[in-house]
Structure formats: structure tokens, C-alpha cells
Amino acid sequence: MALIGRVPGSIAGALLLLYVSTQVLSLWLGILVVFAVIVSLLPFRIEPTPTRMGVAGFFSGFFGTSSAIGGPPMALLLQHQEANQLRGNLSAFFVFSSIMSLVVQAPIGFLTLHHLYITVPLIPAAWLGYKLALVTTHSLPKEKIRLGALIMCSISGMTAIFQGIFH
Questions:
Q1: Angle 33-90-161 (CA atoms, 0-180°, nearest 5)?
Q2: 163, 85 in Cβ contact below 8 A?
Q3: DSSP alpha helix (H) spans, 20-141
Q4: Phi-psi category of residue 68: left, alpha or beta, with phi > 0 → left and psi -120 to 50 → alpha
Q5: Dihedrals φ, ψ of 47, to 5°?
Q6: Quick one: which of 61, 78, 95, 150 has the fewest CB in 10 Å?
Q7: Of 104, 99, 98, 117, nearest to 18 (Cα)?
Q8: How far apart are alpha carbons 81 and 75 in whole angstroms?
Q9: What are phi and psi of 75, to 5 degrees?
Q10: What are the pLDDT tens digits along the chain (167 aa)?
Q11: HSE on the CB side for 12, CA within 13 Å?
């Protein structure tokens, strides 16, 4: 359901790129991400039902295509899964969803060959991060993985807010 929700979310995110300034976009998306982190710290759990997965997929597509921070909606919904299950589900989802965002951005001019050239040097770091996760997540408690995900989502949201205000 998350992948199905990702399709219209990616299209909506691409349309947003055409009509909203990057500063306004960054500010509001950052605020929404930080809000979602705060909600996830409340004492109740939001279980990943098919409907919620579709909604999280939509917002992941919307955020990911328009601002490159598509991880928080899915990470926040799946935060209570076991580390291996969380890593596997998010990895599979983001392979498809990242390609989808790029495909949607190309026709509207937000993906060019220049972007591809500056991305290639990042591939070794991504591979290293993947290998590091394989080695470390088996030994980390579930709550530490959740805390790490919340910290990363908070950093993403605060960075977007900072860029929206000071860029």
C-alpha cells in the first residue's frame, strides 16, 4: 500500500515544485516532519495498517519528490518494528520510491545530467552505510534503532526549517 500511495504523492510533490518557492516549501515540510517526530514521542503507538501505509507512502512521495526528505513518514510509521524488519522494509521501499521521484522530476526540469554527475561520488558512502548497518543492527536494541530514526528525522526536519528561514 505504501508503494501505491507513493505514486500520487510523487506527482503532487512534483507539482508543488512547479508552483511553490523552495524556501517556503522547505520551511513547511520541515515543520511537518518535526511535528511528526513530536507525535511519535507521545505514549501511544500508531500501528502500520494498510490504510496508514498508503497515507505514509503518499507523504513520503510528496516530501521525497519535493524536498528529498521522504524517509520520515515511513520511518515514523514503522519505528516500532524489529531492526532487521525495519531496515528491510525501508530499503525495499526506498529503492522503488527514489527511482519514482527521479522519473517524476526529469520531465519538469528538476533532474538533469548535472545532478547525476554530482551524485555519483556519493555512491561509495551509501554502500558503506549499507554495509555498516548490516554489521551493527544485529547488536543494537530495538529502542536504540527507534531513537536513531527519530534523531535522523529531527535533523532532516530542522535542516529543512533552517534552509527555509535562512536560505
A1: 20
A2: no
A3: 22-40, 50-67, 71-77, 83-105, 113-119, 123-136
A4: left
A5: -80, 145
A6: 95
A7: 104
A8: 10
A9: -60, -40
A10: 888 999 999 999 999 889 988 889 889 888 988 988 898 888 877 888 899 999 999 999 998 888 777 877 887 788 777 766 776 777 778 888 888 888 899 899 888 899 889 989 999 998 898 888 778 777 777 778 778 888 988 998 899 899 889 87
A11: 12
Helix (H, G, I), strand (E, B) or coil at 45: coil
CA–CA gap between residue 89 and residue 74 (Å, rounded): 9
| Cell numbers linked to 91 | 530499503
C-alpha cell at 18: 512547479
CA 98 remoteness from chain centre: 9
Alpha carbon distances (Å) from 45 to 31, 39, 155:
21, 10, 22
Burial class (CB in 10 A: 0-12, 13-18, 19+), 49: exposed
Set of cell numbers at residue 157: 526536519
C-alpha cell at 130: 549499507
